[in-house]
Design a protein that fits this description.
Layout (H helix, E strand, L loop, with lengths): L1 E7 L2 E7 L4 H22 L4 H75 L6
Antiparallel strand pairs: 1-2
Length: 128
């Protein structure tokens, strides 16, 4: 397990993380530190614990909003997938109807051709 030193709110912390995640952990710590600096700029010195809690709450709020957005997108994706399946089913029904119409038309054409050949045979007229 890797160890990383990070600075948050002017204090050093030694943190453990999975091997290869050191850069990610450092980036996350920097984001928290930046939030604390921003909150200190807005609210002044309100205490380290309070600034840390405020930063954590802003992160939690953003996470909550992202979670809602992900759920909406998942619902939208599910609806689109369902619409795609329904569309494919309709397309198959339409293709079958078109194939049946062509088959029926072909049978009628064959019937007409037989009748013409019979009529032509009876009147001794050569067709084609």
């Amino acid at each position: 397990m890797a160890q990383v030193n990070v600075t948050i709110n002017g204090r050093q912390f030694r943190m453990a993380c999975e091997d290869g995640q050191e850069g990610h952990l450092t980036k996350l710590a920097k984001e928290i530190d930046d939030r604390i600096v921003e909150l200190r700029g807005k609210f002044g010195e309100v205490g380290d614990a309070r600034l840390t809690i405020m930063a954590a709450l802003t992160v939690a709020d953003e996470l909550s909003e992202v979670g809602k957005k992900v759920r909406r997108l998942e619902d939208e994706l599910a609806a689109l997938q369902e619409a795609r399946v329904l569309s494919a089913d309709r397309a198959e029904v339409n293709q079958n109807a078109i194939a049946a119409a062509f088959h029926s038309a072909a049978e009628r054409i064959e019937g007409i051709a037989k009748k013409l050949n019979q009529t032509a045979g009876e009147s001794k007229i050569a067709l084609g």
